[in-house]
Amino acid sequence: MKARNAMLSTLAVGSLIFAGASFAQDNSGQSQSGQTPPPIVTVRSMPAPAPQVTTPPPFSQLSGGSKSITQEQAEAYPPLANDFLNASHGAERVSKAQYEAWVKQAQ
Fold first, then answer.
1. C-alpha–C-alpha distance, residues 71 and 64, integer Å
2. pTM higher than 0.85, yes or no?
3. Which of 70, 77, 81, 89 has the fewest CB neighbours in a 10 Å radius?
4. Which domain holds residue 87?
């Protein structure tokens, strides 16, 4: 019984090796007649256009009259909302001084 299992394993391994070799054969010896050459493809790309940034609104408009701007209030001006963590220095609110410094940096 053991000899039969060894022979079966050897046959299976040999078959797999033969199958792998047949898949890996080069087709360069085949006739090229009747085949069209691959098309020439040209890819042209350009960078995305720069976003149009409007003038930052006054602090009082974004803060709604309070002493700071929250993340929700910053959503009214997308550039500030996208850079809120930087403008607030990791805090939950942006003070008037932080907002003015951020506006200067953004310009």
1. 13
2. no
3. 89
4. 59-106
Each residue of 26-62: pLDDT tens digit?
Answer: 555 555 566 888 999 998 888 888 777 789 999 999 9
The angle at the Cα of 90, spanning 104 to 80, to the nearest 5 degrees, equals 40
**In angstroms, rounded to a whole number, what is the distance separating the alpha carbons of residues 63 and 58?**
9
Is residue 29, in this structure, part of any structural domain at all?
no
Question: C-alpha dihedral over 15, 16, 17, 21, to 10 degrees?
Answer: 100
Neighbouring residues of 59: CB distance < 8 A, sequence distance ≥ 6: 69, 96, 99, 100
